[in-house]
Design goal:
- The complex is a heterodimer.
- By secondary structure, chain A is mostly helical.
- Chain A has a domain of 44 residues: Histone, subunit A (Orthogonal Bundle), CATH 1.10.20.60.
- Helices cover 38% and strands 4% of the residues of chain A.
- Chain A has 4 helices and 2 strands; from the N terminus they run ααααββ.
- By secondary structure, chain B is α/β, with parallel strands linked by helices.
- Chain B has one domain: Alpha-Beta Complex (Amidase signature (AS) enzymes).
- Chain B is built from 15 helices and 11 strands.
- Chain B has an 11-stranded mixed sheet, sandwiched between helices.
- The longest helix of chain B is centred in the last third of the chain and has 25 residues.
- Chain B starts with 7 loop residues before the first helix and ends in a 10-residue tail after the last helix.
- The chains are: A mainly alpha, B alpha/beta.
- At the A-B interface, helix 1, helix 2 and helix 3 of A face helix 9, helix 10, helix 11, helix 12 and helix 13 of B.
Chain lengths: 95, 484
């Protein structure tokens, strides 16, 4: 088992993901199996290899700095659970 | 006249000759969807009103002799592609009820071409899966055998096209999500090269791997569909300006002297013998059409699965951070902001999505980034180099699209690693960013379809489409339909 239950709980907290106790135990087992499988990856010699983040021969792609029309405010807001005064409403961020 | 069995090319010819109308084609498909979809669950949303409206407009366009080859053709769209004001769920509870305020670029292009949208098709949640069993809205059934999966994640579009509930369809392919279901449903599925089709409006899973592609019965139809959606889009910084060739006219060339490579790492023990047999027989047909065949090696193939299952979840964990219940989707009620995020996400995501978010978060977390994520990106370079070297020796790589034919619903549902192995032959192409397709090349002993996968260098979709087209000219497999 390459992951401890504490590690599973720590990852879930990083990901802001509620997991039931049953899910924590199941994921501990299943994720450990996937990570064990990835051991072959870690054993590969890549000391002379550079990483591939994208296959494209592109660097930062910029468009001309000209304002473009954006979507109407009410269209953007219409899918949110709570709105107020033309804004998304969220619980207090700071105590 | 039986309309639903027409290819797109045939239907377009009949439309222009005024032998049928788009409204007739659309009504025929809607009628079939009404009768057959309840048992297949290929469509999550059927947009009958939109479809008939678009069909009427298409008929006017045809009357005015202002039609393109897709004008008036009814098509299916995977539910990870945003459609303005039409519910788009990505197969997830966390997007239940979400009506995008904009269209994906591919949808805009289809609208411009006058195509008809029949509805939105089922998918594994956020395109994570190989069977559609991970959909929050029920599994899609394989039209060839309802007790089996259609493959995934684009199983809804694939099943809809195979069952002739659409003339063609659209999906997305991050690790095989178009080619594998096309193989399991016995049709053509094309994953274009990374950067060939705009991803604007595609709900992101793994941004360096995702690509929108097409489903059809014939390579010719696939070429017609791809012609419309391919090309540069200023709204997607990863779409390339490389000119789009005329895929349809390029189908016609022969394949004499074409060099086909068979990667020895893809013809291995563990693959269903019927699959290897059908693929070898297809290669023999290609040889009889003038292609030369030789063995090639992609030595790092065995590392592709673990490379993919570090990179894709890592990118997914970042992409799915946006689902916090604030801007879209249902929102859980909890006393503090963080509790609300945790509960919204815990309630909204299904098991496989949670697994991948966890895996990706771990691979990106302090102390593990170098060992997993960076290492996976380095091995990705090795896998890409393998293809570059092989394509110095051959023009096209041929191999199975899937190690098995369609498996039983539930067979792999509790074993993530076994499910991940379903994509072992398709995901290297995503890591390398090259073009790939699957074309039906026969059936196993149970009458289930087998897919031949063809791969070619980035931005040479015309080449594999031509090979598949010439193969279909010489064979009859694409004329077989499931009995439903």
């Amino acid at each position: 088992m390459s992951l401890t239950l504490q590690e599973v709980q720590h990852i879930a907290e990083l990901a802001k993901l509620n997991l039931t106790e049953e899910e924590q135990l199941r994921f501990q087992k299943q994720l450990s199996a996937v990570l064990d499988y990835a051991a072959e990856l870690r054993a590969t010699d890549t000391s002379k290899v550079s990483p591939t983040a994208t296959v494209l021969p592109l660097r930062t792609v910029l468009r001309e700095d000209v304002p473009q029309p954006s979507l109407p405010r009410d269209e953007i807001l219409k899918n949110s659970a709570e709105q107020e005064a033309g804004c998304f409403r969220v619980p207090a961020v700071m105590e | 006249m039986t309309l639903h069995t027409l290819t797109i090319a045939e239907a377009a010819t009949k439309l222009r000759a005024k032998e049928t109308s788009s409204v007739e084609l659309t009504q025929a498909m809607l009628k079939r969807i009404e009768a057959i979809n309840p048992s297949l669950n290929a469509y999550l949303t059927v947009t009958a009103d939109v479809a008939l409206e678009q069909a009427k407009k298409a008929d006017e366009r045809i009357k005015a002799s202002n039609a393109s080859p897709l004008t008036g053709i009814p098509l299916a769209i995977k539910d990870v592609i945003c459609t303005k004001d039409v519910e788009t769920t990505a197969g997830s509870k966390i997007l239940k009820g979400y009506k995008p305020p904009y269209n994906a670029t591919v949808v805009e292009k289809l609208n411009g071409a006058g195509a008809v949208m029949l509805g939105k098709t089922n998918t594994d949640e956020f395109a994570m899966g190989s069977s559609t069993e991970n959909s929050a809205f029920g599994v899609t059934h394989n039209p060839w055998d309802a007790t089996r999966v259609p493959g995934g994640s684009s199983g809804g579009s694939s099943a809809a096209v195979a069952a002739r509930l659409a003339f063609g369809g659209f999906g997305s392919d991050t690790g095989g999500s178009i080619r594998q279901p096309a193989s399991l449903c016995g049709i053509v599925g094309v994953k274009p090269s990374y950067g060939r089709v705009s991803r604007y409006g595609l709900i992101a899973f793994a941004s360096s791997l995702d690509q929108i592609g097409v489903f059809a019965h014939t390579a010719e139809d696939a070429a017609l569909l791809l012609s419309v959606i391919a090309g540069h889009d200023p709204r997607d910084g990863t779409s390339m300006t490389t000119p789009v060739p005329d895929y349809v006219s390029l189908l016609k060339g022969d394949i004499k002297g074409l060099r086909i490579g068979l990667p020895k790492e893809y013809f291995i023990e563990g693959t269903q013998p019927d699959v290897t047999k059908a693929v070898n027989e297809a290669v023999r047909v290609l040889k009889s059409l003038g292609a030369t065949v030789r063995e090639v090696s992609l030595p790092n193939t065995k590392l592709a699965l673990s490379t993919y299952y570090i990179i894709a979840p890592a990118e997914a964990s970042a992409n799915l951070a946006r689902f916090d219940g604030v801007r879209f989707g249902p929102r859980a009620d909890a006393p503090t902001m963080w509790d609300e995020y945790r509960k919204t996400r815990g309630d909204g995501f299904g098991a496989e999505v949670k697994r991948r978010i966890m895996l990706g978060t771990y691979a990106l977390s302090a102390g593990y980034y170098d060992a997993y994520y960076l290492q996976a990106q380095k091995v990705r370079t090795l896998i890409k180099d393998d293809f570059d070297k092989a394509f110095n020796e051959v023009d096209v790589i041929a191999c199975p699209a899937s190690p098995t034919t369609a498996f039983k619903i539930g067979e792999k549902a509790d074993d993530p690693l076994a499910m991940y192995l379903a994509d072992v032959f398709t995901l290297p192409a995503n890591l390398a960013g090259i073009a790939g397709l699957s074309v039906n090349c026969g059936f196993d002993g149970d009458g289930l379809p087998v897919g031949l996968q063809l791969l070619s260098p980035a931005f040479t979709e015309d080449r594999i489409l031509r090979v598949a087209h010439q193969y279909q000219q010489a064979t009859e497999w694409h004329k077989k339909s499931p009995q439903i």
